[in-house]
Structures are given as structure tokens and as C-alpha cells.
């Protein structure tokens, strides 16, 4: 199947110069990969049939944007079907049968490497335009080995610090946050038993993760980072935070319940919890980039796993040229403004992000600040999650068995390094 998909991708790429090469049905197909700017397909008398996959909560919005796309191309007749597909699991369903998948689909940035390796994604043609119109992090997330493979759609998938300003007077570091919460009889919480969240301590200290060709994860947390910090120092810092009486370890998926409980004065989470936090904190509702933490006697900034949402074009599409035009339209400035207006989704489009209503959104300003300073696009293998969850649980519980920290990290690195393919 992989060879077949790659063949289809090459066929699409060559169609502009070899119209009869692979028997493409799309007379308006895109120019070869690498072309910086590509002209829109010419209108034709045929009806252009396309399928778009979008998340369930985006169905109404996507339908409206599709109608706007049709209105913007009045000389062409379209038959566009919208299907339901979670952005979080798009890759898994697409790779079952890429040729049967949608022409245009939304997906999360951590799936792009697998989609590219399978030959599913058609490279973006108007690279200069897309790159200049979107924030650098989103463009980087959509790029693999120097090639732009998708159209950035949003830039708000990441975590940062929410805090009650009537409780926390200094949100810049963990020590001050915990002290303020303790004084007010409150707690500062985060999910530590998750490789998405706990990686932030290591990323901020200069450690890395990477995806290997065999599906395993390369990780240097058991050594010394480029910043000269030992992994054991980071682990000890996590234990120091977890051991503070004002810290609340939160189970992944239980943040909303903890927020509603009224015990928190601060919490590390994301935009999905913004409404609940605002209701809980009331007039004290505030948010900012992640705090620093004390590590080996120094203040080290927390990093974060920055995520982006994007729209890709299936290289197997019979109408790849029009599919690319639709993907570009669904992610342009006006579409991203509408996405924010209806669903409060943070734009990756620079102009859309500068709109006053976006700049006034407390959570979006915080996640943009975090992603722009210490956000890391996390690309890891499937075998990364359970070992890092277990490691985080041990940290959150205070290392109850007293295992040597170097041993814990050595075991973690060995576990995530196991091939999964």
C-alpha cells in the first residue's frame, strides 16, 4: 500500500508537466512539489466532487466555510461532502485506507510525520504565502525535512498557567505560587502523570525527545542537557514540587472536576478549560506563560508541548488541485477569524491573531506567549506514553519506593526506546 500511495503522490506532482503521465482526472492539478506559488485550477464544466473531514464540533462551521468557498468560485460547480473525523485520531483512520480517505482533512500536528512517511500528504505549493501569513511555530509544525505538507489552522493547542490573581500575587515561579496558595488555603495543580505535561520540566531545561524510524522515541533525559543541567536534577525538582503540601496532582482527564471543586488557586492546563477556570476564579481570572522552577539552585523556565491543528490534502485525491484550493480557503485569514468568533479557537494566521477580540482573550494571549517562548512541538513514538505516565506517577507520589533517580531515568529512556514498528 505504501508504494501505491507514493506512486500516486508522484503522479500528482508530475501532472503539470506530463499531463498524460499517470492518467490524472484533474486537469487543474497542482504544479510539481517545490513550486513556491501555484495558480488556482481553471474552472471547468464538470462538477468537482470533494470530501472534507472535520471534527464533530466543527461540522456547522465547516459547512458555512464550504459555502463561502463555493461563493468565492462562482464559475465552478462543486459537490462537497463533509464527514465527521476527530482531529486527534485522523491519522489512524486515514492510514487504514488512504485512497478511501477524504480529499481534505483536519489533523493535529503530532500526526504529520506518520502521514508524510506513508505518502498521504500532498506538499503545499504556495509555500511563501502560507509561511508568511502564519506564525512560525505553526509553519515549523507543518514542515517535515524542509517541505511544507499542510496548511496551519490554529495555534492554541498547548498548556500554560491559569491563576487566581486574588490568591497568587507572583505567578512567575513555582515557589511563589505554592507559597501564595498555601497562605490562602488553596492548591496549585497540574497533571504530572502524563508525558505531555511532565515533559515540560525537561524541555525547559534543554532536554529533547525525537521520533526514530523504527517508531521508538529517542530521549536524553537520563543525561545532561545542552544547558548543563542533569536529568536527575530535574527529577528532584519535580519531587520537590510534588512534595509541597500546597501542590495537587491531578489525574489526566479530571481537570474540569478539580477546577469546579473550588480548591485551586492555580492550575496548569489549556484553552479547553478556560471557561471553567474563569467561572471558578471569577474576578481573579488570569493566565500567563508557565512559571520557572527551582532546579539545582537555579530558576529554570518550564517548557511545554506546543501543538497546532492543520489541514492536509490527500495525495490520492482525484481533484488534488481543487482540494488544495479548498484547504487554503478553510485556513485563510477570514476563515480563521470566523473559527475564533464561533469557537474561540486561537488563529495561526498572523493577521487574524492581531484582531482586538483575540488580543483580549486571556487564555489565547497566554498560550501564544508560552508557545512562542518555550513551546516545543512534541514528536514521539506510540511507546512513549505509558512509560512517561508511570514516571510521572512516581514523581507525583513522591517516589514512594525511594528508587535512585538515575535508575528511574535510565529505565524510562530504555522503555521509550523500544521499537513499535
Short structural description:
The chain is of the alpha/beta class and 421 residues long. Helices cover 38% and strands 19% of the residues. Helix 17 packs antiparallel against helix 18.
Helix-strand layout with pairing:
Blueprint: H1 2-14, E1 48-54, H2 59-72, E2 78-84, H3 90-94, E3 104-108, H4 112-117, H5 127-133, H6 136-141, E4 143-144, E5 147-148, E6 151-157, E7 160-164, H7 174-183, E8 187-190, H8 199-204, E9 209-211, E10 217-219, H9 231-242, E11 247-249, H10 255-260, E12 264-269, H11 274-281, E13 285-288, E14 292-295, E15 298-301, E16 304-313, H12 320-330, H13 333-343, H14 350-353, H15 356-359, H16 362-374, E17 375-377, H17 385-396, H18 405-416
Parallel strand pairs: 1-2, 1-3, 8-11, 8-12, 16-17
Antiparallel strand pairs: 3-16, 4-5, 6-16, 7-12, 7-13, 9-10, 14-15
Helix pairs in contact: 17-18
Report on the structure:
The radius of gyration is 23 Å and the shape is globular. It starts with a helix and ends in a 5-residue tail after the last helix. α17 packs antiparallel against α18 (about 405-415). It has 18 helices and 17 strands. The model is unreliable at about 1-35 (pLDDT under 50). Helices cover about 40% and strands about 20% of the residues. It is an alpha/beta fold. The strands form 5 sheets. Strands 1, 2, 3, 6, 16 and 17 form a 6-stranded mixed β-sheet that branches.
Amino acid at each position: 500500500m505504501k508504494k501505491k500511495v507514493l506512486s500516486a503522490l508522484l503522479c500528482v506532482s508530475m501532472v503539470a508537466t506530463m499531463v498524460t503521465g499517470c492518467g490524472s482526472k484533474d486537469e487543474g492539478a497542482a504544479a510539481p512539489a517545490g513550486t513556491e506559488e501555484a495558480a488556482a485550477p481553471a474552472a471547468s464544466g464538470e462538477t468537482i466532487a470533494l470530501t472534507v473531514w472535520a471534527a464533530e464540533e466543527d461540522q456547522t462551521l465547516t459547512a458555512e466555510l464550504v459555502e463561502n468557498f463555493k461563493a468565492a468560485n462562482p464559475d465552478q460547480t462543486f459537490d462537497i461532502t463533509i464527514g465527521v473525523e476527530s482531529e486527534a485520531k485522523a491519522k489512524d483512520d486515514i492510514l487504514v485506507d488512504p485512497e478511501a480517505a477524504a480529499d481534505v482533512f483536519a489533523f493535529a500536528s503530532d500526526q504529520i510525520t506518520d502521514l508524510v512517511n506513508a505518502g498521504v500528504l500532498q506538499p503545499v505549493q504556495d509555500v511563501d504565502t502560507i509561511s508568511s501569513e502564519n506564525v512560525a511555530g505553526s509553519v515549523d509544525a507543518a514542515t517535515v525535512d524542509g517541505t511544507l505538507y499542510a496548511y496551519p489552522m490554529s495555534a492554541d493547542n498547548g498548556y500554560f498557567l491559569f491563576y487566581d490573581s486574588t490568591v497568587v500575587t507572583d505567578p512567575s515561579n513555582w515557589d511563589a505560587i505554592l507559597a501564595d496558595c498555601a497562605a490562602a488555603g488553596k492548591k496549585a495543580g497540574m497533571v504530572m502523570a502524563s508525558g505531555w505535561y511532565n515533559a515540560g520540566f525537561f524541555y525547559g531545561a534543554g532536554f529533547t525527545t525525537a521520533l526514530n524510524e523504527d517508531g521508538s522515541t529517542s530521549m536524553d533525559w537520563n543525561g545532561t542537557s545542552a544547558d548543563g543541567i542533569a536529568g536527575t536534577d530535574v527529577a528532584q525538582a519535580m519531587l520537590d514540587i510534588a512534595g509541597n503540601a500546597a501542590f495537587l496532582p491531578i489525574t489526566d482527564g479530571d481537570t474540569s472536576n478539580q477546577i469546579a471543586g473550588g480548591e485551586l488557586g492555580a492550575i496548569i492546563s489549556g484553552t479547553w478549560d478556560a471557561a471553567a477556570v474563569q467561572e471558578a476564579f471569577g474576578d481573579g481570572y488570569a493566565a500567563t506563560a508557565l512559571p520557572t522552577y527551582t532546579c539545582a539552585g537555579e530558576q529554570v523556565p518550564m517548557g511545554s508541548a506546543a501543538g497546532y491543528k492543520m489541514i492536509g490534502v490527500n495525495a490520492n485525491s482525484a481533484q488534488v488541485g481543487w482540494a488544495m484550493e479548498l484547504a487554503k480557503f478553510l485556513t485563510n485569514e477570514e476563515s480563521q477569524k470566523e473559527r475564533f468568533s464561533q469557537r474561540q479557537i486561537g488563529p495561526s494566521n498572523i493577521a487574524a491573531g492581531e484582531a482586538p477580540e483575540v488580543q483580549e482573550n486571556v487564555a489565547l494571549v497566554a498560550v501564544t506567549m508560552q508557545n512562542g517562548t518555550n513551546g516545543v512541538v512534541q514528536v514521539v513514538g506510540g511507546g512513549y506514553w505509558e512509560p512517561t505516565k508511570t514516571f510521572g506517577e512516581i514523581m507525583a507520589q513522591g517516589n514512594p519506593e525511594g528508587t535512585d533517580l538515575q535508575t528511574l531515568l535510565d529505565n524510562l529512556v530504555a522503555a521509550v526506546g523500544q521499537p513499535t514498528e
